Amino acid sequence: MELSFPRYLLAKQTVDDRALNRVVLADLQTALHAVSGRQTFQIIEVGAGIGSMLARLLKWEILPENVHYTIVDEMAENIDFARQWLPEWASQNGFDAKTLGADIRLSAHTCAVTVRFVQADVFDFIRAGEALPADLLIAHAFLDLLPMPAALVSLFSLLKPGGLAWLTVNFDGVTSLEPALDRVLDAHIEQIYHHSMDSRPSGGDSQAGRHLFGHLEQAGAEIVSAGASDWVVYPHKGQYPADEAYFLHFILHFFEMTLSAHPELAPDRFANWLKQRREQVDRGQLIYIAHQMDFLAKLQQPH
Known about the structure:
Elements: H1 5-19, H2 22-33, E1 41-46, H3 52-59, E2 66-73, H4 76-92, E3 96-100, E4 103-107, E5 112-119, H5 122-128, E6 134-140, H6 150-156, E7 159-178, H7 183-198, H8 208-218, E8 221-228, E9 231-233, H9 244-259, H10 267-282, E10 287-299
Parallel strand pairs: 1-2, 1-6, 2-5, 6-7
Antiparallel strand pairs: 3-4, 4-5, 7-10, 8-10, 9-10
Helix pairs in contact: 1-9, 9-10
């Protein structure tokens, strides 16, 4: 199977739709409703991928009336895809799309959003200091890849005093693949897969979700709302919804890329494990659960 990261992000949309914590989302919506009708609301999304979070917020009518939305992602492939896909998505979902130089403007009766695309490492983007201070920072399925807690302090430099941070799908230490193949081997693979997240040179934390409670407080933020945002992917009558079989194949690809040649795994046993898991996906049998956490936080005003 040919694998495409933008297609993985597309396939992940329905998984994320179910996962996002509705209490945290409602608290975000309440906070944004309070500012609706004021001057342009500045949003920066880091690690934004192909812009699917923006599409979701538009479709769910979460955003204020007038928004400037900056999409930051390191992968040129994602930014290029977002530039093409977002206008196409808009036209299919009742929004007008206009090109404004390098930006695009998406509008409907509920709101208008000017979208800026930035292809850059997030920390290079922060150091450049070119962004207007944000009213809302979004980091979706991203913080667990970063060195904490230092990264959080850097990210919060993008916010206005009193600004909000919506930090979603932060992995928190549980991966489950069912039905079991070999419970001892399954548990061992899960353990070393999680350990690989903790030992990346670039940073990362396999228990980022629970640790964010302390990290946010240390970074000068008040937690407004928090809750679980688990990925739960399962078949119905042997079929997965939407493109979620592709999503599962990509998850197994992550396992393969991370653990191939791992000194604690016999290559033939791991190859056979992957083969059997992929066959489970193809037969519509694999169930995948990952435990994650969502947060809405408010940067405290300096005294």
